[in-house]
Design goal:
This protein is of the alpha+beta class. It has seven helices and four strands, in the order αββαααβαβαα. The chain has helices spanning 4-22, 47-50, 57-68, 71-75, 87-96, 107-113, 131-145; strands at residues 29-33, 39-44, 78-83, 100-105. α3 (57-68) runs parallel beside α5 (87-96). Pfam families: dCMP_cyt_deam_1. This is tRNA(Arg) A34 adenosine deaminase TadA.
């Protein structure tokens, strides 16, 4: 459920996106609010400026959170973002431990405004293959780090 406090922070993310346009950057902005609602960090899209396909604000903030926040704080942190995170960013958000995302425009709404936003090709993937060889460095890493080896089934895919 989105509250009026969420809407205020979401408006700030949209304002960050609008400011990005004035800088010549793509119109996407995000911020992180801690468990108490205080803004911890803000970012906007700098893909073109940085010549970096990963310079989405959501991914920048997920990386920041993973570096700077302990697990409990991250879990209580909300990302407010002008558009629904793409698959790349959603993966980073999940790995960072953030607790919640609130977005203004859905992916479908964005594609309706800019059809090129949904024009990404599907890249074929083949595998898994070479389980016996590929598992050696993975198992060695987890033995060294003292952590548990990742679970997997007989074809090498994580379970």
């Amino acid at each position: 459920m989105i509250t009026s406090a969420d809407e205020d922070l979401l408006r700030r993310a949209v304002a960050i996106a609008a400011h990005a346009v004035t800088l010549g950057d793509a119109p996407y902005g995000s911020l992180l609010a801690g468990p108490d609602g205080a803004v911890l960090a803000e970012a906007h899209n700098t893909v073109r400026r940085d010549n970096d396909i990963s310079a989405h604000p959501e991914l920048k903030l997920a990386r920041w959170a993973a570096r700077e926040l302990d697990g409990d704080t991250a879990a209580g942190t909300t990302m407010y973002t002008s558009c629904q995170p793409c698959g790349m960013c959603a993966g980073g958000i999940a790995r960072s431990g953030l607790g919640r995302v609130v977005y203004a425009l859905s992916t479908d709404q964005l594609v309706g405004l800019n059809p090129e936003s949904g024009a990404w090709p599907v890249v074929p993937q083949d595998g898994p293959a070479l389980l016996a060889e590929a598992r050696v460095p993975v198992e060695a890493y987890y033995r060294q780090s003292g952590g548990p080896a990742p679970a997997g089934d007989t074809d090498g895919t994580p379970s």
